[in-house]
Design a protein that fits this description.
Blueprint (H helix, E strand, L loop, with lengths): L2 H13 L11 H4 L12 E2 L9 E5 L2 E5 L11 H5 L2 E5 L5 E5 L8 H4 L8 H14 L3 H23 L7
Antiparallel strand pairs: 1-3, 2-3, 4-5
Helix pairs in contact: 1-5
The structure holds iron/sulfur cluster (2 copies).
The site of one iron/sulfur cluster (SF4) has 14 residues, from helix 2 and helix 4.
């Protein structure tokens, strides 16, 4: 991890320490579906991001394998952002959008129109996005996640009958 990344992640963790997508605990909607990993799955780590969890390397990426339990302060950045991602638009503006890769897992992605998202949370994700995009590796990583999110969205639109309810 570079010094710059350390500073960015420290601030990002702090910004998203207490704020969550809904003002209430969304875990009651789904039984904490995004935390039900096994020994081979977990949360993607940002470039250089450190974690106390076991790290699995897969396809050139690092995954924190938490086994579905963590101290709140140890959550990787991906867990804090989920199910949103910041995106850099061509205009240079940072937008915050739902990550379609979470469609099968997260009711907030599937039923976004019914969710009363916390404006404070979204604002903070945007602030985190602005910081992440200052780092070349994090910017490239976010861009790759966006491509995957958009591919997943496009695929789902081609097979609407298979969409989970
Ligand atoms: S899967 Fe979605 S709704 Fe469920 S706990 Fe995770 S973020 Fe909240
Ligand atoms: S680190 Fe914590 S928040 Fe993230 S998936 Fe594991 S249990 Fe859930």
């Amino acid at each position: 991890m570079t010094q710059k990344q350390r500073r960015i992640y420290r601030k990002a963790y702090a910004l998203l320490e207490h704020h969550t997508p809904l003002r209430a605990d969304c875990g009651v909607l789904c039984g904490r579906a995004c935390c039900r990993g096994d020994g081979e799955t977990g949360m993607l780590l940002f470039p250089g991001e450190e974690t106390p969890f076991r790290v699995l390397k897969k396809n050139g990426r690092r995954i924190a394998v938490c086994g579905g339990r963590c101290r709140r302060a140890d959550r990787p950045l991906g867990c804090r952002l989920f199910p949103f991602l910041p995106q850099l638009e061509e205009s240079g503006r940072v937008r915050v959008r739902l990550d379609s890769r979470g469609f099968g897992l997260c009711p907030l992605v599937r039923r976004a129109e019914a969710a009363a998202f916390s404006h404070r949370f979204l604002h903070r994700v945007r602030r985190v996005g602005k910081r992440l995009l200052r780092d070349r590796e994090s910017r490239a990583f976010l861009a790759a996640l966006w491509r995957e999110s958009e591919e997943s969205d496009a695929l789902r639109r081609q097979f609407p009958k298979n969409n989970l309810k």
